[in-house]
Amino acid sequence: MSEVAVHPAVEPLAFLLGRWKGEGKGEYPTIEPFTYGEEIEYSHTGRPFLYYVQKTWNPADGYPLHSEAGYLRPVAEGRVELVLAQPSGITEILAGSLNGSLIEMTSTLVGVSPTAKQVSAVRRVISVAGSTLSYQLDMAAVAQDMSIHLRADLQKAEA
Fold this sequence. Notes:
Blueprint: E1 18-28, E2 31-43, E3 50-57, E4 64-76, E5 79-85, E6 90-99, E7 102-112, E8 119-129, E9 132-141, E10 147-156
Antiparallel strand pairs: 1-2, 1-10, 2-3, 3-4, 4-5, 5-6, 6-7, 7-8, 8-9, 9-10
């Protein structure tokens, strides 16, 4: 079976395609700082979106921590949307801009299940320089104002 061509609408996001792996750092006003191992993969099926899947683990023992999955959609020139779900009962819909290899998005809707942590807003910034994907995730949650929560520099992994 031959590889599917990238949809023309997705070409501006093609710099994300592949697996990225490394370590990140977390913090928030209500918790102790921590580190985590992480892998992110962006893939496509030839349709006008990228599939996104992320998983993290404790670097000391490999124990799984967080995961999320969703779709990154180019919606107009220089505009993107991210729709994702987390097994913790949180969903996010974010909208924002694409400027070269820099994506900046802010939540338009955060959904939480009755037992999920109360998250009210999220901001995600993603950039790629060479073989390094960097991101920062800020959030407003559990009665706290928007604060940095996660940041990482991940390296492009071999296929």
